[in-house]
Amino acid sequence: MVYFSVLAIAAIAIYWIASSGKRKAKKRQTIASIPFPTEWRKILRKNLPFFYKIPADLQLQLKDKMQIFLSEKQFVGRKGQDITDEVRVTIAAQACLLLLNRNTDFYPFLKTIVVYPAAFITRHAQFDHNGVKTQDARVLLGESWTRGQVVLSWRDSAAGGSDFEDGHNLVIHEFAHQLDGESGVTNGAPPLNKEQNYQEWSNILSEEFKTLQSQARKRQDSFLDKYGATNPAEFFAVCSEVFFEKPTELKKLHRELFEQLKSYYQVDPSQW
Ligand SMILES: [Zn+2]
Fold this sequence. Notes:
alpha/beta; Cyclin A, domain 1; Collagenase (Catalytic Domain); 2 domains; 4-stranded mixed β-sheet; binds zinc ion
């Protein structure tokens, strides 16, 4: 009897999960079918010149993804930052660029995007070996938490959208950390696509990471930002920035790395 009850509960749970997945997909389809607001289009034109360089089919896809993203994520302003459509659309357009052509659940762990007017100070508690607590205060432009939150400076998010060729993009950086964390740990190894090979990804990225670390130690010039030498998670985030912002140079100088990122992101920005 107990055995049958367990089976019945399991069946109900499976049915519930499957049907809630279907409901979510249906809801997303409905949201994407709503016409893209004219005001939002004006913001794209004003703040995100890259939008008009990507192929027309990807522009349409990006708009759909932005509508879904904006319907699901909450924005919170801090230190007097207003949450306007300009803030929401400018951040969403850059964040959703990482989702194009991909089978994605729209940053499933992310609930809230916290926006400060500019750089902000974070305080993290640290404990030494005697258990004595100290506060470590740092000035940051952005931060990505494993569960639930991305924190951004509005000034730098807007600057990243308007200059899309300098190889630096705060929003892409922080949202790449979110993708990385979808595996459960943020370590530079996000869940890969079916056709990708984990061993190949690991070999190529580890090799490039070690080279960058060595260049950083020897204070040598490097195409990739030395911040990427901090750890494999920062390396993946830094590489994602240049993949979208300096794809031609990345392809020329780090061909294998470019190909891995192209397979992961399912787009080729060097063609845009
Ligand atoms: Zn980072």
